Amino acid sequence: MKRDVISMLDVKEDLNEILELASEIKKRQKSGEIYEPLKNKTLGMIFEKPSTRTRISFEVGMTQLGGHAIYLSPKDMQMGRGETIADTARVLSRYVDGIMYRAFSHDVMLELAKNATVPVINGLDDVEHPTQILADLLTIKEHKGHFKGLKFVYVGDGNNVANSLALGAAMVGMDFYIACPEGYEPNAYLWEKAGKIAAENGSAMEIIRDPHEAVKDADVIYTDVAVSMGQEAEAEVKERIFRKYQVNEKLVGNAKPDYIFMHCLPAHRGHEVTDGVVDSPNSAVFDEAENRLHAQKGLMVKLMK
Ligand code: CP
Ligand code: NVA
After folding, report:
1. Would you put residue 265 in left (φ > 0), alpha (ψ -120 to 50) or beta?
2. Residue nearest to atom 6 of ligand 1 (CA)
3. Which residues, in sequence order, are CB contacts of 115 under 8 Å at separation 6+?
4. What is the pLDDT of residue 34?
């Protein structure tokens, strides 16, 4: 049976195992060891939106694991001329050993996964960004050594990244707080799911309106852009609403002195975060970006070996 990872919920049972495998693969890589468990395997990567980290880390990851990745843009494929996503999934499955898909719509993501006979990995859609969160958790583990009892505060839009983070934090037992304006909360269905998992693990989950109150004694402060890809029409309104939620030097002054700052990147410097925060010694953003590579290698070995 093929296994897809469309949501963080799809890694609930073996999240720690995946993170451990990622750490082990990272160590092998750093020591110069050649490790090619995916020799002769191919990953097809469909991108409906731009990408720097996701594209490069998956492609390099496949190369390092002995395999190959193909970048596919819908506008260069027959998808752009109306071939259905279901047929695209069926055809790709006859050639490749796994599909990574960055999509506008979660429903189309599910349609692709339903019709593919090889594993499908969500490389971001409008609801979740699970591979980002695998890298984020690996980064927190490396910087803090543990998860339980950490105060994780997400400041900003309750978007795809926030949804997956709430689930991931609940699974590893971190206390998760989100500071967001009314109307910009995480997806209600996933928030409830995360709440149940957090309750099982004895961790907290709360929506707080005031970012200053939320970040008090935080171990981790995380933010993302206010305007996600595809939301360009809402840009003016959102930029205005989220101005109060900027992660700046004054705001992070309320966190623990050894807090770490995280951002999935790309950052809109001067908007959701200031240069002073992204470039501070507390910032872990480039470790986080690097860990996309190691975390996804762990995931691909799990799904495609
Ligand atoms: N964080 C992230 O997914 O970055 P890209 O859009 O560059 O892939
Ligand atoms: N929330 C952002 C994340 C980018 C990696 C977006 O969807 O554009």
Report:
1. left
2. 51
3. 85, 86, 87, 89, 90, 93
4. 98
pLDDT in tens, 20-48: 999 999 999 999 999 999 999 999 999 99
Which domains are delineated in the chain? 8-128+291-304 (3.40.50.1370), 132-288 (3.40.50.1370)
C-alpha of residue 98 to centroid of ligand 2, in Å: 23
In ligand 2, the atom with minimum distance to the C-alpha of 228 is: 8
Give the pLDDT of residue 171. 98
What gap in Å lies between CA 250 and CA 246, rounded to an integer?
10
Kindly report the average pLDDT of the chain as a whole number: 98
Give yes or no: 129 in active site: yes
Bridge partner list, 99: 44, 120
CA of 129 to the centre of ligand 2 (A): 8
Choosing from 129, 136, 157, 180, the catalytic residue is 129
Cα-Cα-Cα-Cα dihedral of 147, 148, 151, 156, to 10°? 60
Q: What is the mean pLDDT of residues 197-204?
A: 98
Asked about 102 being catalytic, the answer comes back as yes
- Atom number of ligand 2 nearest to Cα 227: 8
